[in-house]
Write a structure and sequence with these properties.
This protein has about 325 residues and is of the alpha+beta class. The chain folds into two domains: about 90 residues, Gyrase A, domain 2; about 210 residues, Cyclophilin. About 30% of the residues lie in helices and about 25% in strands. The strands form four sheets. The protein has a seven-stranded mixed β-barrel with strand order 7-14-11-12-9-8-15, surrounded by four helices. Strand 2 and strand 3 form a beta hairpin. The longest helix is centred in the C-terminal third of the chain and has 17 residues. It is globular.
Length: about 325
C-alpha cells in the first residue's frame, strides 16, 4: 500500500500536495516532487507558519522537512479526514510561492576552516575505520572537497562557502542540527558522504553531504565531509542567554552567513559562549521570495556553467 490519503495537483503558484498516512497518529504532507527546489522549502515554511496560526484542536506537533510537514495529532480529538480538510483550506488560502514574504533571521557565525577538530575526526577515521579512505588526504577532507567540486584549491572552497547566505530548510536527526542550502546557486558545492560513517565528530564542526551543509550541534558520529568549525549552536544547559528560551539556536527559515576567523579566534569565541560573554549576531529581516527569485534569474547562466564544472569533476573523482 502507498499510504496516500489524498493528493492534489499543482496549481498556479501552489505546488502539488500529497497526504500520506504515517502511523495512526501522524500525517505526512509532501509538497511538489522529489527535487532540490528551494521554492518548495519556502512554501513548506509558510505552511508551517499558517498552521501554527490556525492550529486545529487535536494537533500535537508539526515538524518540517525540506518539502514536507509531519503533523502529529490525537485521533480521539481530530479525525484524519477532518485534519486533511483543515490542511486543504490552509493550502488554498496560502499565497503563491513568488508572493511570499517570510519572517526570517540573519545570523553571522564565525568559521575556522581546516581546523584541528575536523582534522582529528578525519585522521581518527583513517587510522581506525578505513585506512584506504579516498576522502582523507593529508589528514583532512579539504583536498577531496576541492577535487570533487572542480575548484582551484582550498581558498576557492572557502570563498565558495563565505560568498553566500545559507538557508536553513529544517533541523533534525541530532538536536538542532541545521540543513543548510546556498541561496546563491553559484556557491553550491556537493560531496558524497563517508562510507562507512565516522565514529566521532566534534560539536560545532561544519561539513557537507550531498548538496547540504550542516553544523554538528553535539559530539557524535557522522558522515559529512568536514571543512571547518563554528561556535555552539545547541546548549540544553542554557549557559548563554541565547539559549535561555530554546536550547536550539537555529530555526527553519534562518539565513546563515559564515565569517572567516583563525582557529585561535574561534576557540576564544567558544570559551566566551560558555562564559555568557559572546555576542551572537542575530537580526530579524523579512525574506522576500520574489526578490530572491529575481536575483537567481540574473545569475542562472553562470550557475549552470559552474554546475557543469562540478558535475564533470565529480565523475572523475573516486567515491568513498
Amino acid at each position: 500500500m502507498s499510504g496516500i490519503v489524498a493528493h492534489r495537483l499543482a496549481t498556479d503558484g501552489h505546488p502539488a500536495v500529497t497526504y500520506r498516512s504515517a502511523g495512526d497518529r501522524c500525517l505526512l504532507i509532501e509538497y511538489g516532487e522529489i527535487a532540490l527546489d528551494l521554492e518548495l522549502s519556502f512554501f513548506t515554511i509558510a505552511m508551517r507558519a499558517a498552521l501554527a496560526e490556525h492550529l486545529p484542536a487535536g494537533v500535537v506537533e508539526v515538524a518540517p522537512g525540506f518539502r514536507s510537514l509531519l503533523v502529529s495529532y490525537s485521533p480521539s480529538v481530530l479525525s484524519r479526514k477532518a485534519l486533511v480538510g483543515a490542511l486543504d483550506e490552509l493550502h488554498d488560502a496560502q499565497q503563491p510561492v513568488r508572493s511570499l514574504a517570510l519572517p526570517s533571521r540573519c545570523l553571522s557565525l564565525p568559521i575556522a576552516f581546516d581546523d584541528s577538530a575536523s582534522r582529528e575526526a578525519a585522521q581518527r577515521y583513517a587510522a581506525v575505520t578505513r585506512p584506504d579512505a579516498p576522502n582523507v588526504r593529508d589528514g583532512s577532507n579539504i583536498g577531496y572537497l576541492v577535487e570533487y567540486n572542480g575548484l582551484d584549491g582550498p581558498e576557492a572552497l572557502y570563498e565558495t562557502v563565505l560568498g553566500t547566505a545559507w538557508w536553513t530548510a529544517y533541523t533534525g536527526f541530532f538536536p538542532g542540527l541545521p540543513f543548510l542550502y546556498p541561496l546563491d546557486p553559484r556557491h553550491a558545492i556537493t560531496a558524497p558522504r563517508y562510507n562507512p560513517t565516522r565514529r566521532w565528530t566534534a560539536a560545532g564542526t561544519v561539513g557537507i553531504g550531498g548538496p547540504c551543509v550542516a553544523v554538528y550541534p553535539v559530539e557524535s558520529g557522522g558522515s559529512y565531509q568536514l571543512f571547518g568549525r563554528t561556535v555552539p549552536i545547541y546548549d540544553h544547559l542554557a549557559r548563554h542567554d541565547a539559549f535561555a528560551d530554546d536550547p536550539l539556536l537555529l530555526r527553519p527559515g534562518d539565513r546563515i552567513r559564515f565569517e572567516r576567523v583563525t582557529e585561535d579566534e574561534l576557540m576564544h569565541a567558544r570559551r566566551e559562549v560558555l562564559e555568557n560573554r559572546y555576542a551572537y549576531s542575530v537580526s530579524d529581516e523579512v525574506f522576500v521570495v520574489a526578490d530572491h527569485l529575481d536575483r537567481v534569474a540574473l545569475v542562472a547562466e553562470e550557475a549552470a556553467r559552474l554546475r557543469a564544472v562540478r558535475e564533470a569533476a565529480a565523475l572523475r573523482t573516486v567515491v568513498p
